[in-house]
Amino acid sequence: MITMLGIGLMAILIILPLLAASVFRVDALKTVFAAFAKMLVRVGVLGAAVYYLVEAGSVWLDVVFALVFIVYTIITVIVQAKLSVRSYLLPVCAGMFVALLVTGGLLYFVNHSADRGISGHFLLPVIALLSGSMVEPMAHSLSVYYMGLRHHNHLYYYLLGNGATRSEALNYLMKRAIEKSLVPGMRQMSGLVVGCSPVLMWTMIMCGVPVLDAAFFQVLIVLAVFAATVLSVVVAVWTARRYVVDGYARIKSEAVKLDSVTEQNIENNEQNI
Question: How does DSSP classify residue 252?
């Protein structure tokens, strides 16, 4: 329940870091309040929307809201990874939707086995947890793939010149992207409890959920996010092949925003091939 005591506690929690910063003369007042204001606006809008969706109890409204949330997540991934919208929009969409369908579907069977139907209480939190947790690792992995195409294209043409197929030449860059997608999940699993607090488990215990059930669900969500991230990167990178390489196995300059010097080097490599 929202009480004056809770609001006062929030004020104390925001004032304490500001006092510590002021003691050491760290000018962070505007930055902290700007971040706090953004958080309040976003959480307020999201909370109001989810409240009315849960009250309405309409599965179709939940699906529409989930689709809007997924689209916003896809745009965030593309912006953070600094990708070409024209070349990577469909691959990122494919990766995100396939990952959410597979992992979300598996979580739905767990929920269904507990004699609970699909509703806003299940659909919205699962979509938000999975898609929100996938943004940073997916953006970083696709950025690695994108930068590899841009700055290490000479390796791609070298492999082609030595008899490799287009898929074999791209596999090295794809391998690096998948490796990057594995790192956050492994770090979270290995550091859970100490390095990374199991917030979901503690929250469920505070809400009265049995400890074993809360611990099981925490592990399940971590594994689901890990699987969804890797699967989304694999599908996105695999789908992006047709958008970054033309029919003659040449890297499209508009797909990776190559500069004039790099384009000239590519032309020289093609002549050597």
Answer: P
Nearest to 235 by CA among 152, 145, 155: 145
Shared-domain flag, residues 247 and 164? yes
pLDDT tens track for 56-108: 877 788 888 888 888 888 888 888 887 777 777 888 899 999 999 898 888 87
* Domain match, 109 and 157 both: yes
User: pTM for this structure?
Assistant: 0.76
Of 56, 71, 89, the residue that ends a domain is 56
Instruction: Supply the range of the domain harboring residue 10.
Output: 1-56
The alpha helices in the chain, defined as continuous H runs, are 4-23, 29-56, 59-81, 85-113, 120-151, 153-161, 166-191, 199-206, 211-244, 253-256, 260-272
Phi/psi of residue 114, nearest 5 degrees: -90, 15
Q: How many CB atoms lie within 10 A of CB 147?
A: 16
Q: Do residues 198 and 218 lie in contact, with contact meaning Cβ atoms separated by under 8 Å?
A: yes
Query: 182 and 242: one domain?
Result: yes
Instruction: List residues bridging with 196 in a β-sheet.
Output: 192
Cα angle at 130 between 127 and 135, to 5 degrees?
115
* SS3 (DSSP) at 197: coil
pLDDT value, residue 196:
64
121 is written with which tokens? 């209480």
- Classified as helix, coil or strand, 245 is strand
What is the phi/psi pair of residue 22, to 5°? -70, -35
19 with 76, same domain: the answer is no
Give the CA diameter of the chain: 74
Does residue 50 sit in the same domain as residue 74? no
Per-residue pLDDT tens digits for 134-151:
888 888 888 888 887 777
240 with 204, same domain: the answer is: yes
